[in-house]
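Same chain as my last thread, 322 residues:
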Amino acid sequence: MATNNDIPSLWEAAKQETEGYGFLGNYEQPKWDVPETIGISCAVSNRFGEGANAGASNSSVEKYIDEASAVIEEGAWSVHIDFTWVTDEKGRRLDQIPPTEAYPMVLEPLRKRYGWSFMADLNVLNGSTFEECMSPVKAGLAETAPCAPGHPEVFVTNAVKTLFEHGVLPQVAIHNSGEIELMKRRIIDKGLMKGPVLWGLLFGLPFDVGRTLLSGNCVMDMDDLVRQMMLMQHQIRKIDPDAQFIGCAAGRGTMYFTTLATMLGMHIRVGTEDTEFKYPNSDEKFTSNLEMFKRAKEIAAMHGRRPATANEMRKLFGMPER
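reply #2:
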């Protein structure tokens, strides 16, 4: 045990420290808390193109299956299926057909090819009644489904209840920071959050009016993107400390958004549903979901992360492996 006589003076201690200087000495920097695995999902609807509602001509059922197949083979843990503006071979809008009739047109061929190696993330917003909207959940077609706290309260509260009751993972779509408070007030404070959810940050697309069912935050540059993503992540962690996030690419800055989400340890979702741009500073566009998905994989690899399988994601959320 050192005595006072063993302790050097200030100047002697400084001299000894300087003479024995090493860059880090025996100190080893701790690893950062960034998960090795990253779930990469893909929303394959094409809602962009030349002319109004061009997605209707660009997203036939056959094209939908082809686009989904390509990203599943490349390692997507889930495929987000949203039939808004998608047409079948008869020219029918699939979002106007009962969901339990429409979804199997895509899901059955995909399950036949790939089994349960991917999770079906199904839109549950289309239907003439609430029961029709929820029918894919009750029929066992969906393993995950998005719901936005900013949707009418009577709809979203009952939608979340239904998802939990049927073992479907809710993906909470956050389009602006105000929806975080709505999630707390409408879902969490009422005791409706019966298990883990996947918080989806989905902002960066402009809207034609200031208040819609899905009003989004304005993102004009990288400064906007960083500030808003950090704010939302911080606010969500205050009400759900163990939150899992998925950054959903949207708008012109999609690849910058995807890169930042990857760096922050989030899961990511790409795809032509909410964006077609490669870079925020040019008009160059992606040609397919596969091209965008491969770019996301490259970004993940550059940051030391590998794509998670569907079963790894199921395990993460306490869902049965298949």
